Automatic annotation (TrEMBL):
The lineage of its organism: Bacteria, Pseudomonadati, Pseudomonadota, Gammaproteobacteria, Pseudomonadales. It comes from Geopseudomonas aromaticivorans. Belongs to the FPP/GGPP synthase family. It holds the Pfam family polyprenyl_synt. Keywords: Magnesium, Metal-binding, Transferase. The keyword Metal-binding applies. Its cofactor is Mg(2+). InterPro entries: Polyprenyl_synt, Polyprenyl_synt_CS. This is Polyprenyl synthetase family protein.
Length: 322
């Protein structure tokens, strides 16, 4: 299955979700709508609303309520992007200037708050307490994951276990909430709901592992961000943690110093160290392992083109180069 096929099977619903997003971006304050439209129109893969649509359709659910849930998840995700770019002092996302680079930190944070609040208004419209419980809990866990990551910046003693806790919170949790809430909205059995919850968690972990891998193996043109950004911020991601743990004393010392000081003055040396230590291969293999776990969860769903699309999406998530 080609990458675009997993969009094609829900193309009409995807268009409907886009229309909901555009409609709900309206505000009586022009700057809110302007910044909101800018960040939403930046494109991206829209994987989280796609997961909602595919999971729901795989269980026989489609229509306005599922589309509203997908739009709700995308608004929540977009609000976190606005906040993250401020926290990370990022100037580039998806190949374009970030909102904070164009309008400043204060408007970006406040429009992020607007989108966050809008997502909860939309969630209330769905009228499903189980869905509200999943998404509100996910929102808290995401915030905790971001704070945990922030507390570990320039901390070279960060372990793989703590790193996994960070990515499970800041990234995998919203993937999990997307598939889990779609299952609950679709009236899935307890076994199917748990399978889709676990699928989202494993897929989200695999996705973030590849993201962190690409920070050392990609290039700015295809990534839409700068190679070495995580290192420049002093973030101890898995390739660095592994290189410190399994590399030579010289490699470990080089990476440790880079994390503690931040910056990319010796980027070439760091790239060589993480490659030579086997850190990139280790990270890639772990991503494939989590992808395999995710795909295994899909056996709980009845055979359909939507289930096949979820399999293809998972395979794409670990094979991508951006």
């Amino acid at each position: 299955m080609q990458p675009q096929v997993f969009y094609r099977v829900v193309a009409d619903d995807f268009t409907a979700v886009d229309e909901i997003i555009r409609r709900r971006l309206t505000s009586r304050v022009p700057l809110v709508a302007k910044i909101g439209d800018y960040i939403v129109s930046a494109g991206g893969k829209r994987l989280r609303p796609l997961l909602v649509l595919l999971a729901g359709n795989a269980l026989g659910q489609r229509g306005e309520r599922l589309n509203l849930l997908a739009a709700t998840i995308e608004f929540l995700h977009t609000s976190t992007l606005l906040h993250d770019d401020v926290v990370d002092k990022s100037s580039l996302r998806r190949g374009r200037s970030t909102a904070n680079a164009l309008w400043g930190n204060a408007p970006s944070v406040l429009v992020g708050d607007f989108l966050y609040a809008r997502s909860f208004e939309m969630m209330v419209e769905l009228g499903s307490l189980p869905v509200m419980q999943v998404i509100s809990q996910a929102t808290r866990v995401i915030a905790e994951g971001e704070v945990l990551q922030l507390s570990k910046v320039r901390d070279a003693s960060t372990t793989e276990e703590i790193y996994m806790e960070v990515i499970r919170g800041k990234t995998a949790m919203l993937f999990e909430a997307s598939t889990h809430s779609a299952a609950l909205l679709s009236g899935a059995s307890a076994a199917q709901a748990e399978a889709l919850r676990t699928y989202g968690d494993a897929l989200g972990i695999a996705f973030q592992l590849v993201d962190d891998l690409l920070d050392y193996r990609g290039d700015a043109a295809t990534l839409g961000k700068n190679v070495g950004d995580d290192l420049a911020e002093g973030k101890p991601t898995l390739p660095l943690i592994y290189a410190m743990r399994e590399g030579t004393p010289e490699q470990a010392a080089l990476v440790r110093k880079a994390i503690q000081q931040g910056g990319i003055e010796d980027l070439e040396g760091i790239l060589a160290a993480v490659e030579a230590s086997g850190a990139l291969d280790y990270t890639a293999q772990l991503a494939r392992d989590y992808a395999a776990r995710a795909i295994a969860c899909l056996e709980a769903l009845p055979p359909s083109e939507y289930r096949e699309a979820l399999v293809a999406l998972t395979e794409f998530a670990v094979a991508r180069t951006h």
